[in-house]
Design a protein that fits this description.
Length: 465
């Protein structure tokens, strides 16, 4: 009996491999096209992990053309006969895997690569993709555009959440896959290219200047940037010696200056609230891109489509803990990013002469039952087309205010800090956050069950505030 059951179980993967049509490499199969996210099923590839991206790019603002090579150092998480990368609108001329030319095709937003030999599970492999084209943003299910967004003057606003990384480099694009990055961008003299992390070198080569940037902490592809502009650059340090690199479009400089002057203080204040700052650099990219309509928490150096106000600066900086260091496991958990960053704004305002967090909660609660924030649970805001809707942001912040009211300040801030520490440079999901809250407030189990059922998982306007 036992033997037969074991045999039956062992047959399952073999059958799956046969059905998938994998004949090569003794059972190696293609990586699943898509990491399996319910909101963005096509995003990423389930069969390998990218440890490091080395991007060498050249960008010409006058023509809007980008050309480059991407060198991906990856680890196979299964025996891999083929794999895919997300890439939209750019043309690939060559793919080399471990020194041998690989077969490749481009179909929709997928680059499908079949290496000359199958890759064993657990082994490291290097993929070099040579590509070029005129990058254009993708339109998301919510109608917004993200990715490489060329501005009328040729500058680039580059913000890839949720799926725009693929508009400028081949990526395993789901936030489940986080990687280190080295990015070198050649631009004509007079232009500046700004990416994440630290500026490793800046050198002139012929008529170009090459900016080389390094972010060694794990970064989701969506949060990588290579923004090019005629920026005013300023460098500064926080009280604890963290380097701050700001790049500001001259048209926004006057409006941005007083807010950016507060960035070191915001980082210091948030480090007190949330625990140590997770990265080795900070800063801001401020563009003049009013048609974009959003800012993004690009890792270590958020990007703003205009001079930010203090709330937006506090919000994107808070994402460095919640969203960048602790990343989403699934897009439907977006409240773990947006609810937390919104709550950071409430906290900052309350401690800097504004309304209390209780008053912010009351103002949100006063919204009519027909208001958008009651339309979906914070824990699942209604699909990809509603990813950045108010349930994740406002209702998400309300969940945290209720939690604070229920467990008290010491436990509440301990939950936030423990969350940031336990999942630092990794991932978290809603169930894990609920479990942590329960663990740190064992005396409030009943109250927490009710709170999460109503405010986090519940739909509609709760009867009581
Ligand atoms: N996460 C960004 C924020 O802090 C919003 C990104 C919006 N992206 C988009 N494609 N609409 O709030
Ligand atoms: Zn946000």
């Amino acid at each position: 009996m036992i033997t037969r059951r074991l045999l039956a179980l062992a047959a399952v993967p073999v059958l799956v491999a046969l059905l998938a049509g994998a004949s090569q490499g003794g059972g190696a199969t293609p990586g699943a096209a898509g990491a399996g996210d319910p909101y963005f099923p096509q995003s990423g590839d389930g069969g390998y992990h990218v440890v490091h991206y080395g991007l060498s790019l050249g960008y010409t603002p006058a023509t809007g053309k980008l050309a480059g090579t991407a060198v991906l150092t990856s680890t196979a998480t299964q025996d891999l006969s083929a794999f895919d990368l997300d890439l939209s609108g750019l043309t690939v001329s060559a793919v080399v895997v471990d020194g041998s030319a690989a077969h490749f095709t481009q179909s929709g937003v997928k680059l499908l690569v079949t290496p000359a030999a199958a890759i064993d599970s657990g082994s490291s492999f290097r993929t070099t993709v040579t590509y070029a084209g005129k990058p254009a943003p993708v339109t998301d299910p919510d109608g917004s555009a993200d990715g490489w967004i060329t501005q009328p003057d040729g500058s680039s606003f580059v913000a890839g959440e949720p799926q725009g990384a693929m508009t400028w480099f081949p990526a395993n694009g789901h936030p489940l896959d986080k990687s280190a990055y080295d990015i070198a961008v050649a631009v004509p003299h007079g232009w500046t290219a700004v990416c994440n992390g630290r500026l490793v070198s800046q050198r002139d080569e012929g008529s170009s200047t090459v900016f080389a940037w390094r972010e060694s902490r794990p970064t989701a592809a969506a949060l990588v940037t290579a923004s090019v502009g005629k920026f005013q650059v300023s460098q500064d340090w926080t009280a604890s010696g963290l380097p701050v690199y700001n790049a500001v479009d001259p048209r926004e400089a006057a409006a941005a200056a007083p807010v950016l002057a507060q960035l070191p203080e915001v980082v210091t204040w948030e480090s007190r609230m949330f625990g140590r700052y997770p990265f080795d650099s900070a800063g801001a990219i401020v563009e003049h891109a009013p048609s974009v309509g959003f800012a993004l928490e690009t890792e270590s150096r958020p990007i703003y489509d205009r001079a930010p106000d203090i709330d937006t600066l506090v919000h994107e900086t808070a994402h460095q803990w919640f969203g960048d260091s602790v990343s989403l496991t699934s897009w439907k958990d977006i409240w773990l990013n947006e609810g937390f960053a919104t709550y950071a704004e409430w906290l900052w305002d309350a401690q800097h002469g504004g309304p209390t967090t209780a008053a912010r909660f009351a103002a949100a609660y006063a919204l009519p039952a027909s208001a958008d924030l009651w339309s979906h649970p914070a824990a699942d805001p209604g699909g990809a087309a509603r990813l950045f809707g108010t349930p994740g942001y406002e209702r998400g912040a309300m969940v945290l205010e209720k939690l604070r009211e229920t467990v008290g300040d010491p436990v509440f801030f301990s939950v936030l800090r423990t969350w940031a520490t336990d999942h630092r440079y990794g991932h978290g999901d809603t169930a894990q956050f609920v479990a942590l809250s329960r663990k740190l407030a064992p005396g409030s189990a009943k109250a927490l069950d009710a709170l999460f059922a109503t405010w986090l998982y519940g739909q509609g306007k709760p009867a009581q505030p």
